Amino acid sequence: MQWSGWSLSLGRLAGIELRVHATFPLLFLWVGFIYWVQTGTLAGVAFGLAFIAVLFLCVVLHEYGHALTARRYGIGTRHITLLPIGGLAMLERMPKEPWQEIIVALMGPAVNVAIALGLALLLTLTGGWTPIDPEAPLMMPASFLQAVLIANIFLVVFNMIPAFPMDGGRVLRAALSLSMGRVGATALAARIGQTLALGFGVLGLFGNPFLILIAVFIWIGAASEASATEIETQLHRKPASRAMITDFRVLSPDSRLSRAVNLTLGGKQKDFPVMDGPRVVGVASHAAILRGLRDHGLEGRVGDIMSAPLTADSSDDLATLLEALQQTPEAQFVCILHRGELIGVIDMENITEYLRIQSALQDR
Prior knowledge:
By secondary structure, the protein is α+β, with helices and mostly antiparallel strands. It folds into 3 domains: 1-160, no CATH class; 163-235, no CATH class; 240-362, CBS-domain. The chain has helices at residues 24-39, 42-72, 98-126, 144-159, 167-180, 182-206, 210-235, 257-266, 286-296, 318-327, 348-362; strands spanning 2-4, 7-13, 16-21, 77-83, 86-91, 272-276, 279-284, 311-313, 334-338, 341-346. The relative contact order is 0.07.
């Protein structure tokens, strides 16, 4: 197990890292408290904790439904993280084809449907159905398996709400994009999602406060999705040569780390392409240079600390470069080549600055 930011890595399953957020244990404390209030017994608390553990196992399977389906379309998953409000499969990107996006979005709820049907069959074959007692504690309306079955039905209904970042919002956007294009579809789906978020928020004020948390979650998700799609559109078909940095310094594999230190202190550049003659053979990131200084001192070689370069052609559009940087978090910049020759570099900061400049020009 290893910490990554606020998340604890539990290992890899099916080639995908599974993480638990640091706040996740708070859910078990809250559930234990609620079941104690509802039942007043240790048996009730044990029921609640076992129930929430099994429920989140279903959530993990739900997220793997998305991740493994996306893999079939050549889309990787960085990690799956369990949060107190559910799970999140961090895909490298969403499919661009509407039908692929619909299938990827639906396969999560489809897993919960399969679990519910399996439990229903098991209960039928074993005669395990138990009438729901209206006088039973609110959090224990039926037998354990029936409670898990009902929870999976709830997960299906909840995730199919037509609002980002729910699966239903992605299905809605993909369906709309078949007739009105991805940008317009995303904007309309985001507006629908935020309208629903307002409705949940109002209901939360007069009823269940948990609806307010859901409303905030949906509102932020819808705004984020709309913003990301708008940025992608602004960068689409804009060549890398328009936004690349042309005033930069390079290192060679045989350069000493002292050279990297001098260049860093003497200017604003902290990450460097590494050239072997006319060829780009690596990159020396600021973090790698610092690690090298700690391990080898000023006389360490750049070639010993460099990593593989991320390259693109000068004609590649900026949307593709942004996606490449997002899919490779450890990459600090993209080396821009023209006929194999390094002519510039692009990082996230420069793409952001390009967007700001374009926005200022449009506001004239």
